[in-house]
């Protein structure tokens, strides 16, 4: 269903990019992966009920595990501004079965072949790369567990039940966060028992209604991904050591020091990549909330489609959610030219012009698959930002070009 929706939402820009990169033919030759739906018929049928599922069960620490995704707590804007509302946040959890998806040698070898991994004289280059592929591919193969719940301890000691997970074995619910907290403060939410959470505690970042917010794309904006080519995506996701875009960590640290914003990292990647991307972002960039697709792909073609189809509709929808949380924040959107970031940011500006204060688009060059399209042309950017004042949006190649622009925002 998710894959069909993405295909229906595919834009002209995405069709052009996928055609230039030969995505359709490449995807047809990818292997079908192991089914991850190893749960009971009752769980399968009742998972359609989502949070209203009366037949859900608590996670079993011996057989199940969860991911607690980091979040941002906010105060709903009240009609009377002198009456601040209690804190609340969206709590997102993914549920899995332990020790599943073991037989993945075939898929590891196939990815290695597809991206052209060489075999050294002693075999170690290929062997080391396949070890990395196995580790990063595992979240795509572990069996998901819908219809499960988990208890967590909120800041202040209150215990809260989260879930149950729906069809994709994720749950999302907005819950009050007790206590007095300051803007920029961070607090941890731990699973009960803690051992059930594979990634440790959830980090909640507190954001008052007013201030600055950054919505940043991830792939080819802050991380080298090479989204115009399927081989590039597979290599940078499953083999290569993740690399930041040159100059972007320094730019983001400058923005963080100058504006003290709340950070959101908005990616079209499926949630299977959450551990990989969280580790990367925490290593190079200011901590923030990562927003990913809630689909859990059972094949690599679906994963490639997640990054290259229906991204504009998806990103605008998620930015609308952030707007509802923090409508009084002054927001900067940062993206790149490989996907539909210009069109997505142009659309959200036209809907909420008072909310978006600046849009910065990194022009990605040097990729033959991108050069074969019109994505870096002035005409493309002018069309994407139709109705957006010229002093609001800027296309750049060197992140250093934005230092002065950021300085100009201080004090607004």
**Average pLDDT rating:** 91
Assembly type of the chains comes to single chain
Profile the largest sheet: 9 strands, mixed
Number of β-strand runs: 15
Which structural class do the helices and strands define?
alpha/beta
- Give the SSE order as H and E letters: HHHHEEEEHHEEEEEEHHEHEHHEHEHHEH
Report low-confidence residues grouped into runs of 5 or more.
none
Strand content: 15-25%
- In DSSP terms (H or I, runs of 4 or more residues), the helix count works out at 15
**Separation of the first and last Cα atoms:** 44 Å
- Backbone shape: globular
Q: Which bin fits the share of residues in helices?
A: 25-40%
Radius of gyration from the CA trace?
21 Å
Descriptive notes:
- With about 400 residues, the protein is an alpha/beta fold.
- It contains 15 helices and 15 strands.
- The chain has helices at about 1-10, 10-20, 25-30, 40-45, 105-115, 125-140, 230-240, 250-260, 275-285, 300-310, 310-325, 340-350, 370, 380-385, 405-410, and strands spanning about 55-60, 65-70, 70-75, 90-95, 150-155, 160, 170-175, 185-190, 200-205, 210-215, 260-270, 290-295, 330-335, 355-360, 395.
- A hairpin with a 5-residue loop joins strand 5 (about 150-155) and strand 6 (about 160).
- Helix 5 packs across helix 6 (about 125-140).
- The termini are far apart.
- The mean pLDDT is about 90.
What is the topological layout?
Elements: H1 2-8, H2 12-20, H3 23-28, H4 41-46, E1 57-58, E2 64-69, E3 71-74, E4 88-97, H5 105-114, H6 124-141, E5 148-153, E6 159-162, E7 170-176, E8 186-192, E9 202-207, E10 212-216, H7 230-238, H8 248-259, E11 262-270, H9 274-284, E12 289-293, H10 300-308, H11 311-325, E13 330-336, H12 341-351, E14 356-362, H13 368-371, H14 378-384, E15 393-396, H15 403-409
Parallel strand pairs: 1-5, 3-9, 10-11, 10-13, 11-12, 13-14, 14-15
Antiparallel strand pairs: 2-4, 3-4, 4-7, 5-6, 5-8, 8-9
Helix pairs in contact: 5-6, 8-15, 11-12
């Amino acid at each position: 269903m998710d894959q069909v929706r993405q295909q229906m939402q595919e834009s002209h820009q995405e069709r052009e990019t996928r055609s230039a990169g030969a995505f359709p033919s490449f995807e047809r030759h990818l292997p079908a992966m192991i089914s991850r739906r190893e749960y009971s018929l009752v769980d399968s049928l009742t998972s359609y009920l989502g949070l209203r599922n009366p037949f859900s069960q608590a996670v079993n620490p011996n057989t199940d595990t969860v991911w607690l995704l980091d979040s941002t707590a906010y105060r709903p804007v009240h009609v009377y501004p002198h009456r601040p509302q209690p804190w609340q946040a969206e709590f997102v959890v993914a549920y899995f079965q332990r020790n599943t998806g073991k037989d993945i040698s075939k898929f590891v070898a196939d990815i290695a072949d597809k991206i052209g991994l060489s075999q050294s004289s002693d075999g170690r280059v290929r062997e080391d790369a396949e070890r990395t592929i196995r580790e990063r591919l595992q979240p795509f193969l572990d069996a998901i567990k819908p219809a499960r719940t988990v208890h967590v301890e909120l800041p202040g000691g209150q215990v809260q039940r989260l879930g149950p997970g729906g069809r994709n074995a994720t749950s999302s619910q907005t819950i009050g966060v007790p206590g007095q907290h300051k803007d920029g403060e961070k607090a941890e939410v731990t699973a009960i028992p803690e051992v059930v959470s594979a990634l440790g505690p959830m980090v909640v970042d507190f954001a008052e209604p007013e201030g600055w917010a950054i919505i940043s794309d991830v792939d080819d904006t802050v991380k080298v991904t090479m989204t115009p080519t399927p081989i590039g995506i597979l290599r940078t996701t499953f083999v290569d050591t993740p690399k930041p875009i040159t100059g972007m960590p320094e730019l983001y640290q400058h923005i963080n020091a100058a504006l003290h914003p709340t950070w959101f990292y908005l990616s079209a990647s499926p949630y299977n990549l959450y551990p990989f991307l969280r580790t990367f972002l925490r290593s190079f960039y200011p901590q923030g909330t990562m927003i990913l697709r809630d689909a859990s792909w059972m094949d690599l073609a679906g994963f490639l489609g997640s990054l290259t189809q229906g991204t504009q509709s998806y990103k605008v929808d998620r930015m609308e959610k952030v707007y509802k949380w923090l409508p009084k924040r002054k927001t900067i959107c940062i993206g790149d030219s490989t996907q539909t970031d210009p069109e997505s940011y142009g659309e959200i500006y036209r809907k909420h012009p008072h909310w978006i204060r600046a849009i910065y688009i990194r022009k990605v060059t040097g990729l033959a698959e991108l050069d074969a399209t019109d994505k870096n042309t002035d005409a493309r950017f002018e069309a994407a930002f139709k109705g957006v004042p010229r002093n609001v949006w800027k296309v750049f190649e060197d992140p250093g070009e934005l230092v002065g622009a950021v300085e100009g925002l201080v004090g607004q």
